[in-house]
Amino acid sequence: MNAKTPDNLMQESTETEKGGSDWKDPKRYLWLLGPALPGIGLTALAGYAVAPKVMRPLAWTGPALVHGIIPALDRKIGEDQSNPPESAVKPLEEDKYYSTLVKAFIPTQYAMTFLGTWLATRKKTPLSDRIGIALTVGAINGVGINTAHEIGHKPGKLNKFLSLASLAPTGYTHFRLEHNFGHHKRVATPEDPASSRMGESFWKFLPRTVIGGIKSAIEIETKRLERRGKSFWSLDNELLQGWAMTAGFFGATTLVCGPRAVPFLAAQAVYGASLLESVNYLEHYGLLRQKDESGNYERTKPEHSWNSNHVVTNLFLYQLQRHSDHHAHPTRSFQALRHFEEAPQLPGGYASMLLPTYIPNWWFEMMDKRVIEHYKGDFSRINMDPDRKEELMEKYGEFAAQVRERARMEALEHDDAKADAAEETESTETDEATA
């Protein structure tokens, strides 16, 4: 990957933008890292199976990748803010290579999950190794939820089936419904269970988003079926279909691997789903869509999602970190998502932000002032935890005042610069008229 640094990628993008249709995706083959992830997990577990005593560290491959190796590579390789030219977007969207990459994740995901279950249920496997294997399988199935996210925004029965299939190992099949028809509608509002509030810890957010997400999905599907004159217990109920897929997979795996498979599958599912909710937590933290005069929320803009352009995490997560463009254009494929200057930026890639989400003081120290700066010190524009609003305003009052003053001075300087430019233009036009 060293051969393609962010500077090189940006240079290639800039040089080829002029060519329009001649533009070539400089990351075309680097996107293979996405479907390669379950392959890495499968290879690691296969190595452990061959020599469990010698290769015990391989049991912990998943958490090592997610919390260690990928964040380290993000810091080393850096960011890439380049966008494909508009003339290249349609050819990118129509190129089946990219959709095939995403779907290629799923077969290996299932093979890896089955092998991990078989290894963890063997009597001779030490408890510490079982924990490591559960975290490895859970980490990759957690990324599988992102695979389902990418596929689930595409139309068609096959895409719906594949999206549910990639969600089934974590038992989070309700995500497709709630995300598409709940979260996208309510994002960056207090009504959205998947949008975290400033001052709200991950551990307070977690039950709110899990319970709220399931309730929202049931409500969405119930109303959809009612519009078609069908009951909740209809075979057309997508929630029942998804839950049946999870039950079928868990049941078949348990039949082969024995009853020890049940706690293992449950543990990896909880960890995988927690990774999704960690990402949900950081994507819209403290951000708030404002209401217009009629009391309706403004349309979702780039400023309503936290973004990151760290290259490695974007390669593994199908550019999920360009979340602003995703919310503005939900059906736009990952390879065509764009960076926006006005979108607020995280201090690191998603992978490096996961551990801070679990430690409230660390997270608040990193993010609260960023939220205040994003809204130029205006507390009224922030989505705050209502239980901590007064506390937060007192804690950050002085800092917010400084931010407001700085914003005021910058606005004055901007107005002066505009006035000078207008005066210079007027003077030039007068001179030309006189001449």
Q: If you had to describe this structure to a student in words, what would you say it looks like?
A:
The structure is a single chain. The protein is mainly α. 64% of the residues lie in helices and 0% in strands. It has 2 domains: 6-358, no CATH class; 380-434. α9 packs across α10 and α12 packs across α15. The radius of gyration is 24 Å and the shape is globular. The chain starts with 5 loop residues before the first helix and ends with a helix.
Structure summarized in a few sentences:
Helices cover 64% and strands 0% of the residues.
Annotate the secondary structure layout.
Elements (H helix, E strand, L loop, with lengths): L5 H12 L15 H18 L10 H17 L8 H9 L1 H8 L1 H16 L6 H26 L4 H11 L7 H12 L15 H26 L10 H20 L3 H23 L27 H6 L6 H6 L21 H9 L1 H15 L14 H7 L1 H38 L1
Distance between the termini: 60 Å
Helix content: 55-70%
> Total strand count, please?
0
For the biggest sheet, the summary is: none
Structural class: mainly alpha
- Spans of at least 5 consecutive residues whose pLDDT stays below 50 are 1-19
**Overall number of structural domains:** 2
Radius of gyration: 24 Å
SS summary, helix count: 18
**Mean pLDDT reading:** 91
The outline comes out as: globular
Question: Strand share of the residues?
Answer: under 5%
Q: Could you spell the SSE succession in H and E letters?
A: HHHHHHHHHHHHHHHHHH
